[in-house]
Write a structure and sequence with these properties.
The protein is built from six helices and two strands, in the order H-H-H-H-H-H-E-E. It is an all-alpha fold. It has a domain of 102 residues. It has a two-stranded antiparallel ribbon. A hairpin with a 5-residue loop joins strand 1 and strand 2. Helix 1 packs across helix 3 and helix 1 runs antiparallel to helix 5. The protein is elongated. Keywords: rRNA processing. Pfam families: WGG (PF10273). Belongs to the TSR2 family. This is Pre-rRNA-processing protein TSR2.
């Protein structure tokens, strides 16, 4: 994964709004799970990118769009494109967040979006570090498998005879005056 620059790539209100839409959708667990699981098919990530663009266009072309309209679009796209029925309040929460961020960009306030961007970068860096660590461990495992394979190719190794242990003496059972055999636990023998 390529590292992102320290500052958001946005330069004006429209760019900040696009960034806010993308970050909001990327942080929506239902959509993230749908994309990671390829519930929308092999082009699931492309569908998420398309959704970001479609919402941005909707905000530009129809400025009267409100949170309810946006929620309806999110629910419909999740159902149509990912076969996911959203029955929790998450679509409404994402729609509310996007509308609030839109209002902030209209006022020229970009602080929240910048904070979201920095949090996203930090999370991406952690995922990248974890992925690299996994690749290193996986690489070491492959190297060990290669070493193990070469041992098998060299043929059987003579191990010698196993050491011989003297058999333990079996304790004679104790018989009491009435002719009963006394039971002794293994630890007392």
């Amino acid at each position: 994964m390529a590292t992102q620059s320290a500052a958001p790539p946005a330069t004006d209100a429209a760019s900040y709004l696009d960034l806010a839409i993308t970050l909001s959708l990327d942080s929506w667990p239902a959509l993230t799970l749908a994309v990671q699981s390829n519930w929308g098919g092999p082009t699931s990530a492309d569908k998420r990118a398309w959704l970001c663009g479609a919402i941005s266009e909707m905000m530009t072309d129809r400025p009267e769009t409100d949170a309810e309209d946006l929620e309806d679009v999110l629910i419909q796209v999740m159902n149509d494109e990912f076969d996911v029925v959203i029955d929790d309040e998450s679509a409404g929460n994402v729609a509310d967040q996007i509308m609030e961020l839109k209002e902030q960009t209209v006022r020229g306030e970009f602080g929240t979006i910048k904070e979201m961007w920095e949090a996203w970068q930090a999370k991406s860096a952690q995922k990248s570090t974890a992925a690299n660590m996994f690749k290193q461990v996986e690489s070491k495992d492959e190297d060990q498998e290669t070493d193990d394979d070469t041992d098998e190719d060299e043929g059987d190794v003579e191990m010698g005879d196993a050491p011989v242990r003297a058999p333990r003496e079996k304790a004679e059972p104790e018989i009491d005056d009435d002719g009963f055999t006394k039971v002794v636990g293994k630890q007392r023998r």
